[in-house]
Amino acid sequence: MLANPRFHGGPSPAPLPMRQLCSGSFLFSFCGLSGYSRRPYFPSISAFPCVRTRKFGVRGSAESNEAETSCTLDGVLEPYSVKIPVGDRHILVETGHIGRQASGAVTVTDGETIVYTSVCLADLPSEPSDFFPLSVNYQERFSAAGRTSGGFFKREGRAKDHEVLICRLIDRPLRPTMLKGFYHETQILSWVLSYDGLHPPDSLAVTAAGIAVALSEVPNSKAIAGVRIGLVNNKFIVNPTTKEMQESELDLLLAGTDSAILMIEGYCNFLPEEKLLEAVEVGQAAVRAICNEVEALVKKCGKAKMFDAIKLPPPELYRHVEEIAGNELVKVLQIRKKIPRRKALSALEEKVLTILSEIGYITMEEPFVNPTDLAQDICEDEDEDEVVVVDGEVDEGDVHIKPVSRKSTPLLFSEVDVKLVFKEVTSKILRKRIVEGGKRSDGRSPSDVRIINSRCGLLPRAHGSALFTRGETQSLAVVTLGDKTMAQRIDNVVDEDELKNFYLQYSFPPSCVGEVGRVGAPSRREIGHGMLAERALESILPSEEDFPYTIRVESTITESNGSSSMASVCGGCLALLDAGVPIKGSIAGIAMGMVLDTQEFGGDGTPLILSDITGSEDASGDMDFKVAGDERGVTAFQMDIKVGGITLPVMKKALLQAKDGRMHILAEMLKCSPPPSKKLSKYAPLILVMKVKPEKINLVIGTGGKKVKSIIEETGVDAIDTQDDGIIKITAKDLTSLEKSKAIISNLTMVPTVGDVYRNCEIKSIAPYGVFVEIAPGREGLCHISELSSNWLAKAEDVVKVGDRLDVKLIEVNEKGQLRLSHRALLPDASPQEKTSGKQQVSGHSKENMTPKSNSNKVTTEKVMEVTVTAEETNPAPDSIPGKNLSQEKATKRAVTSPRSGTYINKERQKKSTSKEVAEVTYEQVDNLVNGEAKVG
Fold first, then answer.
1. Which helix (H) or strand (E) holds 578?
2. Which residues neighbour 768 within 8 Å (Cβ) at sequence distance 6 or greater?
3. Distance of alpha carbon 125 from its chain centroid, rounded?
4. Disulfide: which of 13, 52, 53, 909 matches 33 by Cβ 3.0-4.6 Å?
């Protein structure tokens, strides 16, 4: 059955002209050739092949009004440009320049950022289904910023995670505007052709897609647009630049029509609900202004919509499904458990499908008649001898009617139509039960939250773990801590390497819903849900100075019946606490639903908000609104609408009800048993942060990294990360190797003073002109042959050999930093002047053996140690250096950012199994980690 365009909010299609085939003189209507449109005006057209006629038919309505469009000339779209005000500037929209064979194509320019978007649809309709066949692909070309990919393959390939997220931002607001019954596959392709690094392309891509669809033949209800809202100095900014976003307290992307909001997604730092509503209001006003301009553009350059290609199920089918399954559906929807309810619904659907598509249906009042028996009765009636009427028994002109018992013909419907109608009837009955009875499928009231329980520490070898269960939704969250080598590298269109030291990866296996399915690369849904949970938790993480670890959170959904992304927020928060991460506070997430038109189901017309929705309420409801945060405010939110949009008062009601739900969930999370450990696991790596003078960093690295690699090999640490600003991060599995490497680096970067005396130093090598003595691990100086003895020597080998030890005194540091040592100055027969000079320069300080002493018996109360090595600290009393503890070092809190930093890894140590427990080091009372203090007892 055809859809009435006026019922769907679109204009009635204009009469289609008659066209003449080039191969003959037949005249026919293109509309009449579509399998999903009106009956043909000329029956003779049925002689043409079905495939060709269907192909012509779907394009007829689009081609009919081309001559009436002001932007066309001989069937070719003329270039047209318009400037649309957005915030404090304009965006340039151009059509007819590029992609003229597409159904709709536009380029949208903001500054020097250009996004090109095209819309195309298939010539033939696909099989009807319960969703609109729409696909979106967004790609950021590296050439847009004058770059090529940093990987091995220089051609852009699989979509990156942030590109997938933008695809979702484009898809979600467009889908509710597509009219039901249109089954031509539609594809939206969007490319970033130019990027200036100042104007973000994501909100521009949403607007470009909305304009392209509005200009195309795709039948949609209204044009959409998208904007980003930032908050800088308590002032809202529409489409802020990247520089302004660095100072913004809010990152909100909003899309909608001229009258309603369709999609919002954003992140903020505990923004109050009232402030968030103000931002949405500003965004809605900006979207409304854009949509008004787009509507004017569509009137000039838009193509005629393909309303005649819409095919909807017959209206009477809704009544038949309700008659057959209405009462049983009411009972089935009261089953509380998801799997039994799903199986009961499937069985009932199969029953309805058999009756309406295979056997045939008459009415509930009349007895069922088998169509086979009916056909036999009809054949028998036709075979009976007709009654002969004798002339004269009836008057001329009278009609003789023979009374014959007639049986009703059973009605048959297509399988697809029955399934579509069954789904809609199920949704209608579910809504009616909630509105009229005030009870949901599981017996809860609209504002109730399902039963919550959680536990931590269930995985002994993981650094942190938590199992969060809310009703039939369950998330297993695991935290892993590591150094910079574990950070996620992102290859962006911007010419800079981005490293993420916190990321959350979400997985949704088919077993979590009791099904069998494909297991492979993460889907777009998994990437989107993971990013939402990740951005929600970012606000509570400590700074890199306080906690220099890379944090990875894995959320595996083990059960799902409701918002699993918000369960990942709750489970991830508990797992961070269990891993000993000093987070700023706990947050929780909740998903809100809605029944918009309650008057249809016996209500007063006020939208009904549902807290903590289940899967069926999400599928049958009108909204999916996810909110994460605590009592202070919101950290992340995401809203999808399945109807024409919602207003600000409805959103305000949903936000306030969501806050009550979050408070309840946070209170339940405090009852976690066993509770989070709140201390670092003994299996987590140790990280020591040192600060040296930037000009000394090359002494640690050495030529080609030889020195730092030798330190790693000698001490057995896992990795040493050096940065140009003088910050050095050492990662190790045990405290002994950590202290040893710290002592070597401290000695390498120390500032020696003329007159210092070093005792029991080893001779590393002998040259014809003298010997090289190691005064500290990794630090050598030259003792000239003339300074070895009071007597004249022909060669150094006469008195010393490699490996011998002797006391030396620093007598000179040249402009290259090279050290000149003397053993003769410390001999008893040295001149009184030399002794006096030595005493004055030494000032009572003597440096004994510099070999670091292991301190494996020490008990550490902190695993994060941060020290600053300064000139004063690198010249302490020589006897005090070997035994100096990490707890005596001075703490520093300074940002760690260096684009040219390098990390050196102990590859041999990486090959070893990490399952072996660390010997000789005990970890007790790690209680002060949340305060970020470094304590080594």
1. helix 564-578
2. 785, 795, 796
3. 33
4. 53
pLDDT band for 829, please (50, 70, 90 cuts).
low
**CA angle, residues 681, 685, 686, in degrees to nearest 5:** 105
Torsion angle defined by CA atoms of residues 49, 52, 53 and 57, in that order, rounded to the nearest 10 degrees: 170
The structure's pTM equals 0.75
How large is the average pLDDT for residues 325-337? 89
pLDDT digits (tens, 9 = 90+) for 88-135: 899 999 999 999 999 999 999 999 999 999 999 999 998 888 788 999
Q: How far apart (Å, rounded) are the C-alpha atoms in residues 303 and 764? A: 85
The predicted structure's pLDDT at residue 856: 34
State the residue for tokens 């309650």. Answer: 598
Complete edge-to-edge strand list for the sheet that includes strand 634-641: 235-238, 225-232, 250-256, 261-271, 634-641, 623-629, 588-595, 608-611
**Residue 320 carries which DSSP code?**
H
Count, residues in the chain: 937
DSSP 676-733: P--S--TTSPEEEEEE--GGGHHHHH-GGGHHHHHHHHHH--SEEEE-TTSEEEEEES
Q: Is the pLDDT of residue 828 over 70?
A: yes
Q: How far apart are CA 118 and CA 189, in angstroms?
A: 5
Nearest alpha carbon to residue 686 among 721, 740, 730, 741: 730
Least confident of 18-22, 478-482, 672-676, 903-907: 18-22
Backbone angles phi, psi at 686, to 5 degrees: -90, 140
Question: Burial level of 742, CB count in 10 A (0-12/13-18/19+)?
Answer: buried
* Average pLDDT of the segment spanning 757-785: 89
Q: Are 912 and 891 in contact (CB under 8 A)?
A: no
DSSP letter string, 204-268: HHHHHHHHHHHHSSS-BSS--EEEEEEEETTEEEES--HHHHHT-SEEEEEEE-SS-EEEEEEEE
